[in-house]
TrEMBL record:
Gene3D superfamilies: Metal-dependent hydrolases (3.20.20.140), Urease, subunit C, domain 1 (2.30.40.10). The lineage of its organism: Bacteria, Pseudomonadati, Pseudomonadota, Alphaproteobacteria, Rhodobacterales. GO terms for molecular function: cytosine deaminase activity; isoguanine deaminase activity; metal ion binding. This is Cytosine deaminase. It comes from Roseinatronobacter thiooxidans. One of its GO terms (biological process) is cytosine catabolic process. Residues 42-400 form the Amidohydrolase domain. Keywords: Hydrolase, Metal-binding.
Length: 429
């Protein structure tokens, strides 16, 4: 007998209506009509059930620090970097842990159950690493948290950053990060990519590098990242995050660059909310969007994910922990309005980042872990369009968050008494 059966649901790949049977922590059956009765059952009337949302690019050490010690008045990337430099010496373990846990609570409520967070290791105290390691342990039963050793002030540029990164990896951080475009010279940036990829190969770790977060078309460290990936045998284990300079590169160079990225099996993580907010600040009009070439990279066969990046921190005063908000911005900025592209945008906050993070047992099939989200929507497009409410969030077969459907009561003559926005759609004919 299943412990839980979800009945009459739609799946992101278009299947439905189907039932999903769960025993213990895993899915045991997915079929149009499951005969077995569950100890508990949810009759969901055509709601969309998806694997959990995944954020492959976030900064949990900075989240919810908005206003500490002051606000970013200009809203620019450079003032945000300067502000973080002011804040970092005063960071305390307890405060970092509390803010991160509060964000994890928000993430769970949004059906976001896996996050890769970059952790600034520029400060030799490594208080950020210590705090996030504690958080990783405390949330592990309900949220997968990967930690990137990120020398935010530059691997060569920041004093003692090289030794601090090695110590952070010895402490148990999961991924090697970098920021080559923030080094003092392009040569130093390329050298940092080479050394960090060498360390990754020696330690058997993946790489996720902030790369070319710039409007400068001559910021071309992704080329070096792809080549060092191949040179060190790291194919399929390396991600380039942001890559915003590709938005400004000429098409001839990109026609050479993308095949090299494909050869390296490089993963790409774009951050639509932050990229559209922080890039193009030196432009008047026409003003560049700043987002990397998402449709072209997807068409080439690369795994492309969307990340949230920031929530209420020195760089971004907004954010909600909602990956559907991220996908919605990606649809608009990257003009992903075709039928196929809209599905790809949903994949960019679910299956694609799960693949980049190497999550085991992710998906909706017998044998997969029963990590699921029930949405107040019928399909991925509707979920993105409405930023659909998460009705149930299920982790390892257990409901860990529940929200009432969004229903508006109307008082209008000759009209219905209640409105469910997910049912306001064009007629089938």
């Amino acid at each position: 007998m299943p412990d839980l059966v979800l009945r009459d649901v739609n799946l992101p790949d278009g299947r439905g209506p189907v039932d999903i049977a769960i025993a213990g922590s895993h899915i045991t059956e997915v079929a149009p009509e499951i005969a077995a009765q569950g100890t508990a059952e949810l009759n969901l009337a055509g709601r969309l059930v998806t694997p959990p949302f995944v954020d492959a690019h976030f900064h949990m050490d900075a989240t919810l620090s908005l206003g500490m010690p002051r606000l970013n008045r200009s809203g620019t990337l450079l003032e945000g970097i300067a502000l973080w430099g002011e804040l970092r010496p005063s960071l305390k373990h307890e405060g970092l842990v509390e803010r991160a846990l509060r964000y994890c609570d928000l993430a769970v409520s949004r059906g976001l159950l896996a996050i890769r967070s970059h952790v600034d290791v520029s400060d030799p105290r490594l208080v950020t690493a210590e705090a996030l390691i504690e958080v990783r342990e405390r949330v592990r039963h309900y949220l997968d948290l990967q930690l990137v050793a990120f020398p935010q002030d530059g691997y060569f540029r920041a004093p003692k950053a090289r030794a601090a990164l090695e110590r952070a990896l010895d402490m148990g951080l999961d991924v090697i990060g970098g920021i080559p475009h923030f080094e003092r010279t392009s040569a130093d940036g390329a050298a940092s990519v080479a050394e960090l990829c060498r360390i990754a190969a020696e330690r058997g770790l993946p790489v996720d590098m902030h790369c070319d977060e710039s409007d400068d078309p001559m910021s071309r460290h992704v080329e070096t990242l792809a080549m060092e990936t191949i040179r060190n045998g790291l194919q399929g284990r390396v991600a380039g995050s942001h890559l915003t300079s590709m938005h400004s590169m000429d098409n001839y160079y990109v026609s050479k660059l993308i095949p090299l990225m494909v050869e390296a099996q490089l993963h790409v993580i774009a951050n639509p909310l932050i990229n559209i907010s922080l890039q193009g600040r030196h432009d008047t009009y026409p003003k560049r969007r700043g987002l990397t070439r998402v449709p072209e990279l997807m068409e080439a066969g690369l795994t492309v994910a969307f990340g949230h990046d920031c929530v209420m921190d020195p760089w971004y005063s907004m954010g909600s922990g909602d990956m559907l908000e991220v996908a919605q911005m990606g649809v608009h900025v990257a003009q992903m309005t075709s039928v196929i592209a809209r599905q790809q945008a949903f994949d960019a906050v679910t299956t694609n980042p799960a693949r980049i993070m190497g999550l085991q047992g992710y998906g909706i099939a017998p044998g997969c872990r029963a990590d699921l989200v029930v949405l107040q929507a019928r399909d991925p497009l509707e979920a993105i369009r409405l930023r659909a409410r998460r009705l149930y969030v299920i982790r390892a077969g257990r409901i860990i968050a529940e929200t009432e459907p969004e229903i508006t009561r109307l008082s209008l003559p000759d009209r219905g008494a209640e409105l469910d926005a997910s049912l306001i759609v064009p007629p089938a004919d």
